[in-house]
Specification:
six-stranded mixed sheet, cytoplasm (chains A, B), homodimer, alpha/beta, D-tyrosyl-trna(Tyr) Deacylase, Chain: A, 150 residues
Chain lengths: 150, 150
């Protein structure tokens, strides 16, 4: 399982012409589920995201506070392309990306764990499998890669 | 060296209140340089980005055309946080991230290779080391992680 976390001041997902979800300050998460991922991968990375100290303290010292300590929100979007292998050739190889119902099930469990930790109203979702336009403002920028196998 | 590529319909970098760079359709690249990276890593990933078939063909089949074949642009931003190790604890460990002049030099060489391949006017940059607001619209979304050590 891989996650690209971007620290945002705002982020939204639009499908067609409808804004389906939006947050103010917090994390935009792009989430890739792999063919060999299980509940323990979901467990590991949901804990990691909720406890990750991605925010400064009041004195401006970095990496001090986590998402709930700054009353932040999370916008989560499923992104199988994160599991691409790119070392050979010019086309991405997606054999390690879990797809369809299996991916959606694990992704749903990941969302449930984030909501359990942060509160339902603080965790937004894209539309699994839809063509989405993800608008965001990455402040810093701050972008962190999490990998459950690392 | 790590790159997070996001396929965008627009992207810009603002420092303070000034928009310092912006592109329309193409790639937003967040680029992390590691302490053990050399020119060969720069060479490898610049070739990979320029030849990567991230775009559909006219019939809508995916992964067929590269950035120059679709007359796309690249907005590149230095992002040392991509080299963070996150497996232990709740704070990112940046010991593997190259910093300062050494990072800036390799990053500059990476930019030069992209420009040589795509044309100077098609490759934009952030401001190395500055606090930047990176606005983007990731279409799909499509996000790919490239790692020169993979």
């Amino acid at each position: 399982m891989r996650i690209v976390l971007q620290k945002v001041s705002e982020a939204s997902v639009t499908v067609g012409s409808a804004v389906v979800s939006q947050i103010k300050h917090g994390y935009m998460l792009l989430v890739g589920i792999g063919t060999d991922d299980k509940l323990e991968d979901i467990d590991k990375l949901s804990k990691k995201i909720l406890t990750f100290r991605g925010f400064d303290d009041d004195a401006g010292y970095g990496w001090k506070r986590n998402i709930s300590e700054v009353d932040g929100e999370i916008l989560c979007v499923s992104q199988f392309t994160l599991m691409a292998r790119t070392s050979k050739g010019t086309k991405p190889d997606f054999h390690l990306a879990q797809r369809g119902e299996l991916a959606n099930e694990l992704y749903g469990q990941f969302m449930d764990k984030l909501k359990a930790g942060l509160g339902d109203d603080k965790v937004q979702n894209g539309v699994f499998g839809a063509m989405m336009s993800c608008k965001l403002t990455n402040e810093g920028p701050v972008t962190i890669i999490f990998d459950s196998k690392a």
